[in-house]
Amino acid sequence: MTIRILIMEDDFRVAKINQEFVGKIEGFEVVGVAPTIQDAKEILTYINPDLVLLDVYFPDGNGLDMLRYIRKQNLSTDVILITAEKELYSIQEALRGGVIDYMIKPVMFDRFKQTLEQYAEYRKQLQTIDDVNQNKVDQLVNTVRGRKAEEREQNIPKGIDPLTLEKIKNEMSNYGNTGVTAEYFSQMVGISRTTARRYLEHMVSTDYLTAELSYGQVGRPERLYRKKK
Fold this sequence. Notes:
Elements: E1 3-8, H1 12-23, E2 28-34, H2 37-46, E3 51-54, E4 57-58, E5 61-62, H3 63-72, E6 78-83, H4 88-96, E7 101-104, H5 109-128, H6 134-145, H7 149-154, H8 162-172, E8 180-181, H9 182-189, H10 193-205, E9 209-214, E10 222-227
Parallel strand pairs: 1-2, 1-3, 3-6, 6-7
Antiparallel strand pairs: 4-5, 8-10, 9-10
């Protein structure tokens, strides 16, 4: 089933980017774009979208007030905030209002895609539950938050899979003190260079690895990763 999205964004350029992002993700479609609060309210009178991508600032009001409006109308619509607003108060109010996620502009496509896919998985799980118990509730909450139980326990950020992380840690043990670049490591493990760098940098941030610049004879310097002694 296709998930229908209403984009609430007063900047037409950002709205267009969000539309293009949605178009690249299977299972989603944009059913409306509202540049003002009033436009959004009118759209909601005849379209009940599954999901609203909501900004905070509008020429005729505040997105947090729109979030409250959606809740008061008892609409079966979920909300994700996409905004440049970084005030703690706004984040707290959004979370209290039951937003699925809170993304800070500018939003990269990978982050956007991850959030929507997590939301799709959450809706899929809802459709398969025929009886409720604590484990199933925990699974739903963890899915919509984008975090698995083991990730929270290990303080692993989004985008890092614990099993893949363990595999990469084991692989790094094979390089001893010689070190390895992200490009070479990606070829050896069979993953993309971007993925390799993400995991290697995560291990640097947790003091599992060290990294230093390696200056070769040709080309730009690369980061050389070594297991910490």
